[in-house]
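Obj: model holo form, ligand = desmosterol.
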Amino acid sequence: HDLMAIHPYNPLEDPYSLYSHSLRNIDELCASIVRSHRETSQYRVEELHALRWKLFNREEIQAYQSKSVDEMWQHCAIRLTEAVQYVVEFAKHIPGFRMLSQNDQIALLKTGSMEVVLVRMSRLFNTENNTVFFDGKFAGTEVFKSLACGDLITAVFDFAHGMCALKLTEQQIALFSALVLINADRPCLEDKGRVQRVQRSVEFGLTHILHRDNQESLMHKLYQRVAVLRSLCSLHMEKLRWFSQRYPLTAHSLFPPLYKELFA
Ligand code: MHQ
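Output (holo structure tokens):
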């Protein structure tokens, strides 16, 4: 598998083993998830804020719009795959993730990595002008016109807008991303019980920080966002099937191997 190298099991590193359960506290769990998010987040929020004024100009937008459908799909598939690779790194440092079987790690990433990319995309979103940081500048929906999937782009931008409205802190985004990924209800899990234990600890961590931030009412809103994420991902899969039927050669030979492994 391209996805990751398996790590040997070490009970001392397992936050759910008898050794460490009583030692590790919830603050430590949250701190490692937040650290992992920070170290794999591609761009820091302050960095993005400083770049807010950098918009694509008319000629640059024109250049994206005059790309062929398959050229633009390939381009976005590469960008999306880069973002997924950072999410894989993030996952590996969620306490408990590496103690799952390799098959279960892959099953969680197959269904969850795209969802986490979309959660993270809201950090790159400017609600003032509905643009997202893409290829070094802020891009509106018109930049993605030649993908020929306007409904998906609109839905993705709406989702980012809705996430921004929640005004989450980086810590809340980190814990929410971990919760999106570690979901015991995903299909094809070998050891559902083990995933459930990790999921409960992450849930507990998120509850803990929301309580600390005096924002417990966010929990309900976050679970509503999860339902939207599911529908966005099935729309993405639907568009990919449409694209692969039309442009089988591009989909087969020019898409990144990891993109094919995850979504094909
Ligand atoms: C970047 C920021 C970024 C910006 C835009 C064609 C295809 C593979 C899928 C994001 C359908 C389109 C894109 C906007 C759709 C899923 C596209 C539309 C990381 C990548 C990311 C998040 C792009 C990912 C792919 C998105 C969501 O730093």
